[in-house]
Amino acid sequence: MEEDLPGGRVRILTQETQIGRPAAEPARQTPNPMLNGHQVWLDGLVRAAFGKVRA
Fold this sequence. Notes:
- This protein is of the alpha+beta class.
- It has one domain (2-49).
- It has two helices and two strands.
- The chain has helices at residues 21-28, 33-49, and strands spanning 2-5, 9-12.
- A two-stranded antiparallel ribbon has the order 1-2.
- The longest helix is centred in the C-terminal third of the chain and has 17 residues, at 33-49.
- It is elongated.
- The protein starts with a strand and ends in a 6-residue tail after the last helix.
- Residues 1-34 are annotated as: Disordered.
- InterPro entries: START-like_dom_sf (IPR023393).
């Protein structure tokens, strides 16, 4: 879900689940590779928003 905010900002709501056999082992690891992957994705969104991503 995306929401336009004042000042040219945008709020993006994401939802993630870690259920099922494929997610069981990584969900127990510290650091959690799934959460780290999600953060990398979010960081990419920020870079793209600021035009710092090559096409």
